[in-house]
Amino acid sequence: MNDELSPEDELRLNVLFNTDLKAVRIDESSMTLWALTPQGEASVPLKPTERADRYLKRVRELLSGHALGSPGGYPVHLTRWTRQSQAGLSPQHLAQLLLIAEEEAVVAVVHSPALTDELARYAWWCMPTIENARLMLMRDVVCQGSMGRTLAEFLVEHLAFLHEDDVGILDTVAVMLYSGVLTDAERGAMWKRGTSRNSYYVPFLELQPDSLPNPRPARADSASVPQREGNPYAAMLARALSAQGQTFLATTATILDRPEIQEVVNHTLNALANWCAPLRNADVASREAARTALLADAPQFEADCAALDALAATDADTVRPIFLKTTAIGSLMRRKIQPVVTPLLDAIVVLRRAP
How far apart are CA 169 and CA 157, in angstroms? Predict the structure, then answer.
């Protein structure tokens, strides 16, 4: 026993140790230790016998000694772990880390590839933060388990708190779309947020380019695209002129017309490059032959093919030389990338024009 703890705290903690503990956290503001057991939550009001920070260190040493068998307290090396270095830990070891009331240990659990749906529930009880919710939703076992909806609902509710944090918006919307647990109403609500902050649109373009909410009408001549199996221009024209294609192009133009940060530009250009994969993956000779064959049957699409070529030639690497020389954001960034973005916007206008 740790003689530096008050007798009352020592007694209560040792009683807790005889229960089936699932997780432990400490509310330092109220000096209360909370424990999660199969019967529910239990609390231990702490009675410090010295300065609060020193006393909490003693408490954590006792917890660590019980959970990890480390009499010296929380293992120092854990605080120096990278957040990707827990590949060798088993779920049993991860469960032990949730019993020592250390936030860094909870983060280690959240990052671990051995995370289970049950451990996610306990880790969430310990530390319910936006970052932890995002990280856990990246695990299929969590998305498909009971915690998937819980975490998604939390993130939906807390989207408003991200305000102008475009990187946070990108990451949060992306993991929610990836999770597959959102309702159609939730997807629609997130899409609608793009009218006030276009970074909300970007993950949709990256992850669900062919199932975007509120699709626009297909271009009037979409049905006249020749069907040519294996022809990348026929495939891309059919895609671009469809309802989903017109929505993708219009949304891409909305983002590129007024991006706020470099990450939004990079993600959008890479989403565009992936969308143009049929053209990008074809060698030059095959592309030329395919274009010639298509235009022989449908010469009215010559300008559209040229526009597709312009879109397919661009990705995040195109703006990399610019971004390597500047950290500019907002209007200054937009001026610097104008030589790259303007031809793309012009190409989108061609593909969206009325025939």
Answer: 13
